[in-house]
Amino acid sequence: MSTPKNKSQIAAEILAAFEARGGQHYGEQVTELQHALQCATFARQAGEQPQMIVACLLHDYGHLIHNLGEHIADEGIDARHEAVGANWLSRHFGPEIVEPARLHVDAKRYLCWKEPDYLTTLSEASLTSLHLQGGPMNDTEGLQFESNPYYASAVQLRRYDDMGKVTDMPTPGIEEFREMLESFIRPQS
Predict the structure, then answer these.
(1) Mean pLDDT, the chain, whole residue set
(2) Burial 52-88, CB ≥16 within 10 A → b, else e
(3) I want to staple 185 with a disulfide (CB 3.0 to 4.6 A). Which of 7, 127, 147, 173 is the partner?
(4) Alpha-carbon gap, residue 189 to 93, rounded angstroms
(5) Sign of the CA dihedral running 146, 94, 83, 126
(6) Would 1 be classed as within a structural domain?
């Protein structure tokens, strides 16, 4: 039986994944690390609660751990990064972090249904992935999504996700978010 990891070790593992694979691009003009830092920075600048800032930082964590390469969407494959990331994150974080991250792809589909003009704001990479992820929701899916207790948080995270694609935007380094990240890691048993 292995010894449970402490909060510092888990945070170090997460930061190591950003260090190892954060330089990858995923169809946008920013790297995974730049995107994560921009999303978290926009959330912090907007005065969001710490759990939203951490969810923004970690929402695409699945891209760092799925091992399917940077251009998987270009190959017509949905890596389901939101599920991969949320499944890993759920071992260490509560639903206030995990669920908005898990639902951020559905939030994009939802916003395409709820706000038809939203579709015109998506980047080319987001449009490509939208097609692979099922396209805009229909009425039944949209109403069902609204019944999820985390849907509003997922929509807010999605808005920061869409903002976090600015080439060469200055942000704090990832170490600046370590303490906040650690504060939400659940103790291991």
Answers:
(1) 89
(2) bbbbbbbbbbbbbbbebeeebbeeeeebbbbebbbeb
(3) 7
(4) 13
(5) positive
(6) no
Please write the tens of the pLDDT for every residue from 4-40.
788 999 999 999 999 998 888 766 789 999 999 999 9
What CATH number has the domain bearing residue 12?
A: 1.10.3210.10
Angle at 188 between CA 186 and CA 189, to 5 degrees: 130
125-134 long-range CB contacts below 8 Å, 24 or more apart? 125/26, 125/27, 125/28, 125/73, 126/162, 128/27, 128/73, 128/74, 129/27, 129/73, 129/78, 129/105, 132/73, 132/76, 132/77, 132/78, 133/78, 133/105, 133/108, 133/109, 134/109
The domain total for the chain is 1
**Amino acid, res. 168:** D
Residue in the structure block whose two tokens are 């790297």: 31
Torsion of CA 53, 151, 123, 61, to 10 degrees: 50
Between 46 and 124, the more confident residue is 46
Residue-number span of the structural domain to which 95 is assigned = 7-183
